[in-house]
């Protein structure tokens, strides 16, 4: 297989998305070796290589067809999309699917003790951010005139330095805000990691691998929450017990040898199964309840 027929995937080199993204590819069955320069990983059992770059560069690399796929936060995707649109760049990259990690939100934060009612409180203020396009759209949609102060990092110290009144930055736990005496005031955008793909048509071979990869990712994401439940249930309680099984479609019902009034119920539950659920099932008459992890799933 020649080099051009191998899928090239851009991942963040070192940061919050790196470990989860590599782990995801490994769970999809990819075995890889890392290049000497640490800038690439070569897939050993799939025609797929990984290129490690700064997350801000990922949308450009994919838009320019240097990479076929990229994994990056929706916040970066949206900021780039708006900036490309403003500059008339086309065609844009495509968003393939969202992933279940990298969750955070882009929020307005104000110095502790500042009163904030709604976006109108931003009128005439200076707001520091690394997401000028998303913030400008937020202000425009609310008809608020304010000054957007674009920074490349360390936004949280802008109010203390007197560079801005408020900030618009990424938050997950909020501990960075607390450390800087800032309070979260309003969410501008929710974010999580996502996969984007090149706008340039790819070969049938690559298309096939992109399809296989997305199917496997879908399976990996589904099994994380899924459990296989097995239990014994009195026949007359079956309807009630089925209602208590979280996120399960058609369970398998089997007769139990020598116990005519009881059946075995097996079901894949696509939601997390908590102790409360098991206690509820037991209360409804179920016995011999077993909960097993699901390793792989292909819908
Ligand atoms: P790079 O050197 O690649 O440019 P970075 O400093 O821009 O790295 P990270 O801080 O590693 O980026 O964050 C990468 C992505 O992780 C963010 O764009 C966002 O989508 C997601 N993320 C999740 N939680 C947070 C958080 N609390 N703060 C910042 N980003 C977060
Ligand atoms: Mg970055």
TrEMBL record:
<comment type="similarity">
    <text>Belongs to the ATP phosphoribosyltransferase family. Long subfamily.</text>
</comment>
<keyword id="KW-0808">Transferase</keyword>
<dbReference type="GO" id="GO:0005737">
    <property type="term" value="C:cytoplasm"/>
</dbReference>
<dbReference type="InterPro" id="IPR015867">
    <property type="entry name" value="N-reg_PII/ATP_PRibTrfase_C"/>
</dbReference>
<keyword id="KW-0028">Amino-acid biosynthesis</keyword>
<keyword id="KW-0963">Cytoplasm</keyword>
<dbReference type="GO" id="GO:0005524">
    <property type="term" value="F:ATP binding"/>
</dbReference>
<dbReference type="InterPro" id="IPR011322">
    <property type="entry name" value="N-reg_PII-like_a/b"/>
</dbReference>
<keyword id="KW-0368">Histidine biosynthesis</keyword>
<dbReference type="InterPro" id="IPR013820">
    <property type="entry name" value="ATP_PRibTrfase_cat"/>
</dbReference>
<dbReference type="InterPro" id="IPR001348">
    <property type="entry name" value="ATP_PRibTrfase_HisG"/>
</dbReference>
<keyword id="KW-0460">Magnesium</keyword>
<dbReference type="Pfam" id="PF01634">
    <property type="entry name" value="HisG"/>
</dbReference>
<dbReference type="Pfam" id="PF08029">
    <property type="entry name" value="HisG_C"/>
</dbReference>
<keyword id="KW-0328">Glycosyltransferase</keyword>
<dbReference type="InterPro" id="IPR018198">
    <property type="entry name" value="ATP_PRibTrfase_CS"/>
</dbReference>
<keyword id="KW-0067">ATP-binding</keyword>
<comment type="function">
    <text>Catalyzes the condensation of ATP and 5-phosphoribose 1-diphosphate to form N'-(5'-phosphoribosyl)-ATP (PR-ATP). Has a crucial role in the pathway because the rate of histidine biosynthesis seems to be controlled primarily by regulation of HisG enzymatic activity.</text>
</comment>
<dbReference type="GO" id="GO:0000105">
    <property type="term" value="P:L-histidine biosynthetic process"/>
</dbReference>
<dbReference type="InterPro" id="IPR013115">
    <property type="entry name" value="HisG_C"/>
</dbReference>
<feature type="domain" description="Histidine biosynthesis HisG C-terminal">
    <location>
        <begin position="225"/>
        <end position="296"/>
    </location>
</feature>
<dbReference type="InterPro" id="IPR020621">
    <property type="entry name" value="ATP-PRT_HisG_long"/>
</dbReference>
<keyword id="KW-0479">Metal-binding</keyword>
<dbReference type="GO" id="GO:0003879">
    <property type="term" value="F:ATP phosphoribosyltransferase activity"/>
</dbReference>
<comment type="pathway">
    <text>Amino-acid biosynthesis; L-histidine biosynthesis; L-histidine from 5-phospho-alpha-D-ribose 1-diphosphate: step 1/9.</text>
</comment>
<feature type="domain" description="ATP phosphoribosyltransferase catalytic">
    <location>
        <begin position="54"/>
        <end position="218"/>
    </location>
</feature>
<keyword id="KW-0547">Nucleotide-binding</keyword>
<dbReference type="GO" id="GO:0000287">
    <property type="term" value="F:magnesium ion binding"/>
</dbReference>
<protein>
    <recommendedName>
        <fullName>ATP phosphoribosyltransferase</fullName>
        <ecNumber>2.4.2.17</ecNumber>
    </recommendedName>
</protein>
């Amino acid at each position: 297989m020649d080099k051009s027929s191998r899928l090239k995937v851009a991942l963040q080199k070192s940061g919050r998305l790196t470990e989860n993204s590599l782990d995801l590819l490994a769970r999809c069955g990819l075995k890889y070796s890392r290049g000497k320069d640490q800038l690439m990983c070569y897939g050993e059992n799939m025609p797929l290589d990984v290129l490690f770059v700064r997350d801000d560069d990922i949308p450009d690399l994919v838009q320019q067809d240097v990479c076929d796929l990229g994994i990056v936060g929706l916040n970066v995707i949206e900021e780039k999309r708006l900036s490309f649109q403003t500059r008339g760049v086309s065609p844009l990259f495509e968003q393939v699917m969202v992933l279940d990690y990298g969750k955070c939100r882009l929020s307005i934060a104000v110095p502790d003790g500042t009163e904030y009612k709604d976006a109108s409180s931003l009128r005439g203020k200076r707001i520091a951010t690394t997401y000028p396009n998303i913030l400008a759209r937020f202000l425009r949609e609310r008809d608020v005139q304010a000054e957007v102060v674009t920074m490349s990092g360390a936004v949280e110290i802008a109010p203390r330095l007197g560079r801005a009144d408020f900030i618009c930055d990424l938050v997950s736990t909020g501990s960075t805000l607390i450390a800087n005496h800032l309070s979260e005031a309003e969410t501008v955008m929710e974010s999580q990691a996502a996969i984007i793909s090149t706008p340039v048509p790819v070969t049938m071979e690559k298309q096939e691998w992109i399809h296989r990869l997305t199917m496997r990712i879908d399976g990996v994401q589904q099994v994380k929450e899924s459990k296989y439940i097995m239990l014994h249930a009195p026949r007359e309680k079956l309807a009630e017990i089925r209602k208590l099984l979280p996120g399960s479609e058609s369970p398998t019902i089997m007769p139990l040898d020598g116990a005519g009034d009881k059946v075995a119920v097996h079901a894949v539950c696509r939601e997390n199964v908590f102790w409360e659920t098991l206690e509820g099932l037991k209360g409804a008459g179920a016995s011999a309840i077993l909960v097993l992890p699901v390793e792989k799933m292909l819908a």
